[in-house]
Structure formats: structure tokens, C-alpha cells
């Protein structure tokens, strides 16, 4: 698995994803509509990875736990409570730039 | 058409910035990408993006340049200032050569010397470039170090979460755009 170019195929066939809190991993998984449990590693974690994981959890998109509580989380999880993740809107950015450059 | 200089940081930064570019019209051409010399994976992502784009748009010009990396993750403050100054020696001639109408960046250390170069060229009345900084989606409550610096040097500073808009009132909030 080391540095495969893309995990897209693996993600597509999974029923549940357990991942670290990297933004790319989280977003790619959520966009494929897969239930996600984010595991925070308190020792390695960059503060900012935690920000996104916490927010996604607050908004109800992911479950989250740390290494020691993973088993417990897996046993008691309710995946149906997770909300579907709406996609980002790059068209809003394009529109914004168009206004800046007087193209709209 | 407006020429664009895109600063592609490693990994997730490049993926995010390519998403930002995904809806831009043909008016934003050519696209000059700037990468850190140690970045292996971004070039492939960029080429793939541009190749797909060329299928839709006839006018698809782009270039790729590399500059020395300004800062390693968690590098100390003092040495970061020195390595950033070193990077400016490369980014300044590059920015001067490309004279972009717009610079787009989203947070990697590489963007600081590039934006400072453009800012300097603006002060010297050589080229007025619009600097647009989009803070990464990972940043919900706090700004990255690049963000904290470029908040003062950018023309438009875009954040993707409402908490940041509250803390940095001069920023622009468009919601999640990647």
C-alpha cells in the first residue's frame, strides 16, 4: 500500500473506513459517501489535523476516537447517525475571481 | 486573459489547489506552476490535471518551475527566516520573468517567498500582481504560519470556515470551496 497513486478503487469497495485525520484521507472518503472513523494519534498529531477531525465530528460527518478507544468505538458505533457530506463548491471560487477581474 | 502563477505545495496542498482551479474559465491562462524542488508527487498531479483540461479547452498553456523549499515541517523560526530569504533569491527572478496577473496559493511555505517577491515587484512598480491566498480546508480555527504572514500581504485572503472569518475580519468567506 505504500504510496499507491490512488486509493480510489479501494475506497469504492469498502463498507467502512478507518483512517488517520489527514485532510486528504478524510475528504476523499467522505466524498465517496463511505462511513468514516477517524483515529487521532495524540503522540504524532499535528494540531491542525485535529481541528478538521473535530469539526467534521461536530458536524456529524465522522466518528472519532483515539488508538486505545478504537475497539470500543467499533463495538458501539451507529453508522446510520452519520450525515451525508455535501461536496465543496469550487465554482464559488471561480465566480469570486471572475468578479475580481471584472469578468462578471 | 489573465496569467496565473500557482504555488503548488506538497501533497494535500496540490490536490486542494487543483480543485480550486477546476472551475476556472479559459480567461485564466497561461498557468505557471511553482513547486518546491524536493516535491516528487505534485508534478504528476499537475500534468494529469492539465491534460484533462486540454480535452475541454483548446487554449491550455502551462509551465512548471521549481524553487528551493522554504521550510521543512517544524523547522525553527530563525532558520526558517534564512531559508525563506534563500528561496526569495529564486522566486524573485521567477516572478519577474513570469509577471503574473494573479498569484494563487494555499498555504505551503513555498508560497511565502513567491508572494513576497510579487509584493516587492508591485512596490517597485514593475508589475502589479493580485495575490489571492486560500487557507487550506484543514484550517478550521487557526491559521497556518503562511496564512498569518500573508494575511497582511495578500489582496484577497479566503478562509473556508466561519470561525476564521470571525477571527480575521478582513478575510473572505465563501464556504467550503474544495
UniProtKB/TrEMBL annotation, chain A:
E.C. number(s) listed in UniProt: 2.4.1.141
Keyword Transcription regulation listed: no
Cellular compartment(s): Endoplasmic reticulum
Domain Glycosyl transferase family 28 C-terminal: 1-90
Keywords: Endoplasmic reticulum, Glycosyltransferase, Transferase
Molecular function GO labels: N-acetylglucosaminyldiphosphodolichol N-acetylglucosaminyltransferase activity
Coiled coil: none
One BP term from GO: dolichol-linked oligosaccharide biosynthetic process
Cellular component GO terms held in the UniProt record: endoplasmic reticulum
Pfam families: Glyco_tran_28_C (PF04101)
Enzyme class: transferase
Keyword Transmembrane: no
PANTHER family named in the record: GLYCOSYL TRANSFERASE-RELATED, N-ACETYLGLUCOSAMINYLDIPHOSPHODOLICHOL N-ACETYLGLUCOSAMINYLTRANSFERASE
Similarity field: Belongs to the glycosyltransferase 28 family.
Protein name (Swiss-Prot/TrEMBL): UDP-N-acetylglucosamine transferase subunit ALG13
Organism of this sequence: Toxostoma redivivum
TrEMBL record, chain B:
Subcellular location: Endoplasmic reticulum membrane
Record carries keyword Repressor: no
GO process terms (BP): dolichol-linked oligosaccharide biosynthetic process
Gene3D superfamilies in the cross-refs: Glycogen Phosphorylase B
Membrane topology type: Single-pass membrane protein
GO CC list: UDP-N-acetylglucosamine transferase complex
InterPro entries linked: Oligosacch_biosynth_Alg14
Domain of life according to the entry: Eukaryota
Keyword Transmembrane carried by entry: yes
Keyword terms of this UniProt record: Endoplasmic reticulum, Membrane, Transferase, Transmembrane, Transmembrane helix
GO molecular function: N-acetylglucosaminyldiphosphodolichol N-acetylglucosaminyltransferase activity
Assembly: Forms with ALG13 the active heterodimeric UDP-N-acetylglucosamine transferase complex.
Family to which the UniProt record says this protein belongs: Belongs to the ALG14 family.
Protein name: UDP-N-acetylglucosamine transferase subunit ALG14
Highest classification ranks of the organism: Eukaryota, Metazoa, Chordata, Craniata, Vertebrata
